[in-house]
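Sat 14:20. Reprocessing the chain from the morning session after the first attempt stalled halfway. Input below, unchanged.
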Amino acid sequence: MSDRGAGVTRRDFVRRSAALAGGLLAADGGIDAVHATEAPDDAAVVARQVASHLTLWYRRPAAQWVEALPVGNGRLGAMVFGGIERERLQLNEDTLWSGGPREWNNPNAPKVLAEVRRLIAEEKYVEADRAARGMQGPYTQSYLPLGDLVLAFEHGDLARSYRRQLDLQSAIADVRYRVGNVNYVREVFSSHPDQVLVVRLSADTPGMITFTATLDSPLRHDVQIEGDVLKLAGKAPANADPSYYDSGKPPLVYRDDVGMTFEAQLSASVTGGRTWQDRAGLHVRGADEVVLRLAAATSFDGYDKSPVREGRSPGTIAAARLRAASAKPYAAMRDAHVASHRALMDRVSLELVPPTPPEKSPQDLPTDERINTFGAKDLALVGLLFQYGRYLLISSSRPGTQPANLQGIWNAETRPPWSSNYTTNINAQMNYWPAEVTNLAELHEPFVDFIERVAVNGHRTAQVNYAARGWVAHHNSDIWAQSAPVGDYGKGDPVWANWHGGSAWLSQHLWEHYAFGDDVKYLRERAYPVMKAACEFYLDFLVPNEKGFLVTSPSASPELRFKVADGGTAALSAGATMDRALVWDLFTNTIEASTALGTDAAFRERIRQARARLIPYQIGKRGQLQEWAKDFEEQEPQHRHFSHLFGVYPGREITRAGMPAIFAAARRSMELRGDEATGWSMAWKTNFWARMGDGDHALVILTNLLKPAWSTATNYTRGGGVYPNLFDAHPPFQIDGNFGATAGIAEMLLQSHAGEIHLLPALPSTWPTGRVRGLRARGGVEVDIDWKDGALQHASLTSSQARRMRVRVGDRTSEHQLRAGQPTVVSG
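Finished this time. Tokens:
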């Protein structure tokens, strides 16, 4: 059928395409992964095709998944490989998970809890670990791939002038190349306004686009034809075991009565040529221009509803989205997509000016070569990494979607690393560290929604597993909001499976969303009730130790074991430092929330008194902040987790001014941990050193992070870095490292956790000059900063409401009266 979106005659199309090719593809260049020919000036010509300074670009198609480029609208994602003869777009939909609602609580847990506490009190830690396994429930379910859209072209794979790119400002992935004398252009984006994936194919010579599009999935599926629409209808497994767990049974289990259904629908709008569909695919022959639209949906209708018995009709939803999108011209869809994306992306800009301009701009090199050659020495690449994290959050988390999981929304595996779930002992939280400070507050909302759902289930877990009030959450969760300890009823290691701090840490995000936004209605109706209930659990769970201090028992410091007297190791003790820090943070935030709302004075006083009785921080024999109540020796001294330093970041209790001795001990702890780690751990370390006010050390960590990672094999020690597409490497890929790095760069430039706005608190010496626009501080203050020769030139502070604010520059502080909506200038 003809494309309403083309809106051009054959002559107009040829003229427009020729102009495009003249501007962008006038000379030969590039290289194909299979075959290539080059003219002398190819590299320079291809390098000039940059859409903007915020562009990832490459001279060859992606050979593996971590080279492909991600697009997403918060719900529907694709990884674009950029193949010449065969293009693969790997597809995801954010509600496509295995399983369904189920019972995961353990009624035997209270009896086991009493025994575990007895063993810990007797310092029988190994025995306590063994007993605690009796408190566990099932593993979480897994986030799954939808499938692949494959385009098989009939022009061969001998291409010139090849280039693929992702423009972060437009959120459009482009592929451009020449076959013979014909220039081909491919544009891909996932539209948030229209809720479809869009692929536009064009050539500068009429009648040269011939291909077959097919849909496939690694899950159970069937391909169907309905009119001019190609459909992929599938079903998810009832259970998917984690990739690290072998139960001795089939890891993927399908059942008729459990497991959501899904559907993807594809249509083509064609200018010139002809098209038809059959079971072999969607065929296009001799077209001038083609616009493909793909819609997808699942039967998911809520975390507490069976996707089989109470689910939605994915085919009906996908058909409605496809029908609506097909009625719109391509140009209108593209413009709406770009406008929606840029409304978020353009809020923040960052420019880091190198001390000495390079003779040749690193931006003339493809992104993978920039990573390999320059790393963090390329300040524009640091800025690109910063904005890439913001791009990924926009693409994987929009109001009304699921929150970004361990891989955002991008996953190609039926048994993805760590189930691609929500790991709540840091990773899920790290995904949202940049949301508030980099001016993407509404993207925090899916995580806030998720926390509320986990809290509902967590009330039942607190009651059944602990005989306690309030709510509790543990190490892992999923789309079904699992709240109980995982481990397949005794198979999980208590060092992570029995950690119960999820409710306290998740509650911090409820408070931070208020602290940055000042929305009292949100605080009263949504955040405070959940925070208060989290406090109720810990009021019941805390017990006095031999000195009368309140501690948690059992207590783990994820995911690190300590050495015991007989030469073995254990996970559980009483009063791990992280628990103390989490509970202090929860109690403090709830006290401030209650005060701001003028409510619950008696309850506020109760948690204030409990907070005063928490076990104090302790300094160990190496001058370090102890990780446990006793000065145990770590099994792995350079472990990737440093959970006991939560009070430095993302907490706010341990500051240089407020607790100088503990602050120094925390620094000593990090020195002992070292500077190498997995990718996400280095992102956390960047934030830690920024809070320490040590910008040069933070940059050391960023330098270690912004280096090439080649292996995708699981490495729990020092394998971190980034892949060619700038995805963070644990390894394998974990998106929290990208989000954590973005937050860390922001934390080097602006901090507001200590009751003041601190400008340039951790500026590296090699970032002497620069400017940043649009960062946010707590209190609803937007901040622009300019600096030169390592010193503040001026800053502009714009508050959402009138307020008095203290501002720090170096060791100097000043008081400023901010007026609502009116910029206040602070000079250096």
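Residues 445-466 form the longest helix (22 residues).
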